[in-house]
Design brief:
By secondary structure, this protein is mainly beta. The protein is built from 2 helices and 16 strands. A 6-stranded mixed sheet has the order 7-9-11-15-16-13, with no helix packed on it. It is elongated.
């Protein structure tokens, strides 16, 4: 009888261990598991608290895997490593901005914006991008005219690091500017990561 109880206990132990390896849940209703999740939390009174660190501490993480999540206390953003760069802040509400027919308009370094140019086929405005911005800050620019829109880097300041421009497509990015063609829309995102520490950050042009 004792031997049978030991066998039964062993079987239940193996079953429980196997189940635990398949899925884990912490919080309310621990026995109600989402079949698509390997790990789940549930609560109506508490939240999930990820590791909190500064940008310098985040950049010191050795060989971060894609999908690693931290809360950046420098930018106050939840950030995810995508295998190449840290990104975050894409859920910031965007402010709509009408592009003037001429002259220069400054893009924000803290507020995501949507720039729109309509009904101005003889315009050639310029959008000046900041040297530094909130990591993951995203701007969308919609050119609905036959004119072009020029993106410019800010003037260099002695002692400050410059910002770099990188295009996602085959478009040419000059040393100091990027031209948005007529009837085109572009998304640009600022990332404060630079492996060589030569720049304050990079504006990526996803056109």
């Amino acid at each position: 009888m004792k031997q049978n109880l030991i066998i039964i206990a062993f079987v239940f132990g193996v079953a429980f261990t196997t189940h635990a390896q398949m899925a884990q849940k912490i919080g309310d209703n621990p026995m109600t598991l989402n079949p698509s999740a390997i790990f789940e939390t549930e609560s109506v009174t508490k939240g999930l608290l990820p590791p909190r660190m500064t940008t310098i501490q985040r950049n010191a993480i050795a060989s971060p895997p894609a999908g690693l999540v931290v809360y950046n206390t420098t930018t106050n953003l939840l950030e995810i490593y995508n295998g190449t760069i840290w990104s975050g802040g894409h859920n910031i509400p965007k402010e709509y901005v009408a592009i003037p027919p001429s002259g220069t308009i400054n893009a924000s370094n803290t507020q995501s914006q949507i720039f729109i140019m309509n009904n101005c086929d003889t315009c050639n405005p310029t959008i000046l991008l900041p040297t530094e911005a909130t990591n993951g800050l995203e701007h969308i620019i919609r050119n609905r005219t036959t004119s072009t829109i020029t993106f410019m880097k800010p003037p260099s300041v002695s002692g400050n690091k410059p910002v770099s421009f990188i295009a996602n497509s085959n478009s040419t990015v000059e040393a100091t500017s990027f031209i948005l063609a007529p009837y085109k829309t572009i998304t640009i995102v600022f990332f404060d990561y630079d492996a060589n520490d030569s720049f304050s950050g990079t504006w990526y042009f996803f056109d």
